[in-house]
Model the fold of this input.
Amino acid sequence: MAVNFRASARKVWQTAASIKTGVVLLILVVIFSAAGTIVLQRPNTEPDEMQNAYSPQALRILDGTGLTDVFHAWWFLTLMILVSCSIIAASVERFPNAWRYFSRPYKYPDESFRRVLYPQTSLAIADEETGLVAAERALHSLGFKPERVVREDHFGIFAERHRISEMGVYIVHASLLLIFFGAVVDGIWGWRGTLNLNEGETSSAVELRDGTTRTLPFAIRCDQAGQENYKDGSPKKWWSKLVVVKDQREVEKKEIVVNDPLVYRGVRFYQSSYGPNGKVEKFSITATPSSGSGEKREISLGVHDTVPLDADTTVRFAEFIPDYAVRDGQVYRRSNELGNPAAHLVVSSKASGKSFDVWFPPLEEIADNSKAPYQLQPADLQMGHFTGLQVSHEPGQWAVWTGVVLLGIGLAFVFYVVHMRFWAVPVRDGKTGKYTLWIGGSANRNRDAFGQRFDDLVALLEETLSTIPKTSPSEQVATVAGH
Amino acid sequence: MARVKAEQQQPTTGMTLIVLVGLAIAFLLFMAFLNVVKSGNLLSETNLLFAALIFYAGAGALYLGFGVTGTESYVRFASLATWLGLIANTAAVAHRWYEAGHPPFASVYEMLLSFVWTLAVLTLVAEKKFGVKVIGTVTMPVAIVGVVLMQLLRTDVHPLVPALQSTWLHVHVTLAMLAYAACALSFALAMMFLIQDNMKTETFLAVTSASTLTIYASIVLTRFENWGGLSLVAWNPEQKSEVLLSKGVRLFVTIPDLGWVMTLTLLVVASPLVLYGLARWKNNDSFLTLANRAVFISILLQVMTLVMFLVRARDGRYPSLDADGLFATSLAASPFILSGLVGGVFISLLYLLLLWRRPDLERLLPNADNLDRITYKTIGLAFPLLTLMIAAGAYWANQTWGSYWSWDPKETWAAITWLVYAGYLHMRVTRGWRGRRAAYFAILGFAVVMFTFFGVTYLLPGLHAYA
Done:
């Protein structure tokens, strides 16, 4: 039983580590993500739009299978976990071998290796030392650092470059895992929401995507916000002056624009929109006494402000309705969008105790503006503005960016850094007793360019060999002693 | 295109073609010069683009001449023409950049401008560095179509909306252009590999017919209106923009009878595929001869359709189903239908080139092993570029929308492209996939790239509204 279990565990492991599994999983990811771009997705679509696009039955099926929110469905998450497992398994399965290869470079080629290696060549040499010296010099002049290798009674020269290239693919896979890790951290601990602030307002309540509110441990105040336009009227720039307030102290200040957020304690505030908030900042009116005596006055007031017109009379800005409708002699607020605004002012006289309603625009069926002791004329309406901030907290993003940088480095190693190795071994022919220098090379990619390099080395070696004088006797002795 | 066909039927030899092309270029430049003298503005973008068009067209003709006759001297003049076209193109890019104050990546027009530029550079690189001389036969016509499309699209400089004012935008789009161009190159190389790998000519016939069929089927399926009309986006000539009924809803006008023409062409371009199927089924090669004739007829019909489309959609006022009155339309309103039609003709012509000149092509192209290796190298270039492109886009999105990944269709499809090429690399490195299968994968990868670039923008909704 135990053996059976081990065998099946081994089988599961091998399946997980196989390239076939990896590719099948990739194909599944491709199919489901494609589905997620074709079927309308709940997070970016209004509910009515969904209902218009699909029949109720189809919508029920789509919702039930999670196809209307593919990228947050449990099975998509499972798929991503499986992909990660496959990457881990494949890397763990292959890594030890690669690590051995990396940590213990193969420096002295044995006979069987020498037989099959391509490219390789042999040059006639006078004796071992000449060959070794020539190989060292030639490799040196090609920019390598050759080392002399001694194996029992044999000498050899080994030189290599960019061994790290062998690790490239593991760097790539590890960086992908790091990116996934960061995304998972963000999925669990991260959040996103919006915060709309009127100029001068302070708030710490962020409205999250799911409709709930999150209270920050600090507050944000918007001192000023604005928009700059191009000549053709399209928006050029939105900006907001934000202040972080903590324990009644201003701890940080920044003017943010689109593409340049304010970051405080890992929470980032982005400029995302700007517009009228439907509230009046200042309403300027001119007031002329109805009696005709007395001069015209200019006053300006905010909502609920009361301003005296003379010793007896005051005017109060009672209400501002951004989008009004009149029905059955009543004024209704149709919506909070600034569309069809109306202002309600009340002129009161202390002495008589009478109040007169004044509406702009004049609404005859509600009130007669001319009855009031002052004739009011609207001059200017200054609307307040809000700045729309996107707020997000993504604690995993550092893992993501580190992963991205590593991914770039890893890919550079994988595609553009070639691990090149050269070996040179003097070989004595058993029959004739003559020496030849065996030279071989290997590269882990871009083999045709490497072949050219190998030919260059051989040409250089031949040239070097022709310039080296016959080895002096003492060196020969040394070589013999080395045997 | 007409000139191209004439050449295929009676291949000219020696200097004749060069002289003809040279004279044509000189004539067109002279005409352009007269125009310039009249308007007094030498270095306007339109003039520069016109010059680029002339040189690219000359280069295209010479490359095609080389493809057909194998005369080496054509290539020298062709690359000279490409160089000149590239200079004019570069000047146009620089002019645009200066005028707009930002690198030219903000609209479809500006993207095309940069794309054509990249294509010309890559053609020269492939020719000089890798010795793939015939590549211009494919890339230059694409560049010509690009420049013609640009003439039709709006050219006024649009200021950048706040979200686009970022250095990362330029990094992102530059990388995207480079990556897509590298993918396009790998696609062309994979096709050449299949030719060198002795893939049967009738297989190319089937593929050609299937591709043109896809083009016409997608037009007919999405745009055929009742009683044989073809619906096109309405165009407001004063504002140089599409007419919108409400936010994101475009107004369509119906051109009568054009729908029937499209349907007829659809049937004819499908016929070679049907005949190919019959030939395979009955094991009878006489169907193939018939199929090749059908391709020829389909080209004539496609050209006719294109002309009818050009004539009727260029301007004129047509009724709409959604609103009362007559509305104008313009070629600029339907760039994708136009490029589809031109592309169909182009693909079919390439097939004819293969059908008639296959031995010459095989002699001229590098051998299959080399092509396979170069394809892999190109993808080895495209893949890191794709990776960096996605990373730069994510970083930019993070700065603008506060999230580095929001599963927007364009993002998702970029990831899918990346995964397809990742699959290719894994199969090649660990499974030793070479040759045919690797070539199919490269072709599939490019198909996905095309969908990401064009399909997503015009079929799927999302944040990437400006590109």
User: Anything to note?
Assistant: Residues 74-103 of chain A form the longest helix (30 residues). Chain A touches chain B through 48 residues (CB under 8 Å). Chain A has four domains: 2-93, 105-162+418-482, 190-278+388-393, 280-373.
